[in-house]
Design a protein that fits this description.
Elements lengths: L2 E6 L2 E6 L10 H16 L5 E6 L3 E3 L12 H20 L4 E5 L2 E3 L1 H7 L3 E5 L3 E3 L13 H9 L1 H10 L3 E2 H6 L5 E3 L4 H13 L3 H14 L4 H17 L1 H11 L12
Parallel strand pairs: 2-3, 3-5, 4-6, 5-7, 6-8, 7-10
Antiparallel strand pairs: 1-2, 8-9
Bound molecules: ligand LHQ.
Ligand LHQ binds next to α2 and β6.
């Protein structure tokens, strides 16, 4: 199986599973990932997703053995399979944690950047490897990178295709945290559990608000915040959060109400 999906209490653990190829992506894997995300979103007991890779790499991007000798239009056709995955990950109404356990190259780097909270092992690195093979960053690279690290770094990373160590990626704001290798998965599980115990409706609305801020003017964003805040205020989680504050106790958020 090219991916492994484990249902854990409160969250789904999805593991890219072609370790002998550093989890290089195929069309089959993209389809399996989309199906796993759809299934996570449809299952009301699932409140977060954790994505990681098996073996020593996170994901080496497109499986290059599959594109040798294909026509240029077929490269575009391949992206027709990957783009819906990136969109789905980004818009999933559940928090998505990515634990980058090793090198994340090409589309693999941008798959990670499409997630909500990215943590990486200190030994991991991010490489916009595309220019090395005469291609451009895809799977959202030209969209995520400048927004995360600014245009100066985005241009250099895309053009030079140099690896960025996890610690630098964290320092630059490309990812949330670099974590000692032996602590990566325990910390990633703890993050997923913490998010799974969070106010699911508010977390989904936070994603929406931040996404829409990419294109909104301030006045539009303030209007959106007003509307989404009303929605959040209607959730039982808000009532519980407020009650817990006044009672001086930790909140116990209820099941997904969507
Ligand atoms: C691989 C791969 C790989 C197959 C390592 N494919 N086998 C999307 C859609 C449509 C079209 C085009 O593009 C895209 C987006 C893209 O993602 S394009 C960019 C694709 N990725 C790359 O260019 C990265 C290629 N890989 C590398 O540069 C290195 O493998 C990195 C820097 C990731 C890791 O280097 P090492 O740690 O030294 O490992 P390695 O190179 O020895 O790889 C281990 C094995 O994995 C090796 O196989 P072998 O049989 O020799 O043990 C590699 O051939 C295989 N592998 N990446 N993308």
């Amino acid at each position: 199986m090219t991916i492994l999906v484990e249902t854990r209490p409160g969250y789904r653990l999805i593991t890219l599973n072609r370790p002998e190829r550093l989890n290089a992506l195929t069309v089959e894997m993209a389809a399996a990932l989309i199906a796993a995300l759809d299934s996570a979103a449809a299952d009301k007991s699932c409140r977060a997703v954790l994505l990681t890779g098996a073996g020593r790499g996170f994901c080496a991007g497109q499986d290059l053995t599959a594109i040798a000798g294909i026509e240029p239009e077929e490269i575009g056709d391949l992206l027709d399979h990957y783009n819906p995955l990136i969109e789905k990950l980004h818009a999933l109404p559940l928090p998505v944690v990515c634990a980058v356990n090793g090198v994340a190259a090409g589309a693999g780097a941008n798959l990670a950047l499409a997630c909500d909270i990215v943590v990486a092992a200190r030994s991991a690195s991010f490489v916009q490897a595309f220019a090395r093979i005469g291609l451009i960053p895809d799977c959202g690279g030209t969209w995520f990178l400048p927004r995360l690290v600014g245009t100066a770094r985005a241009r250099a990373l895309a053009m030079l295709a140099e690896p960025v160590p996890a610690a630098t990626a964290a320092e630059w704001g490309m990812i949330w945290q670099a974590i000692d290798d032996d602590r990566l998965m325990p910390e990633a599980y703890a993050l997923a559990v913490r998010l799974a115990g969070g106010p699911t409706a508010a977390l989904a609305l936070i994603k929406r608000a931040l996404d829409e801020s990419e294109v909104n003017e301030l006045d539009e964003q303030l209007d959106l915040e007003r509307d989404l805040q009303e929605e959040a205020a209607e959730s039982p989680d808000h009532a519980e959060g407020l009650r817990a504050f006044l009672d001086k106790r930790a909140p116990v958020f209820g099941p997904r109400a969507d």
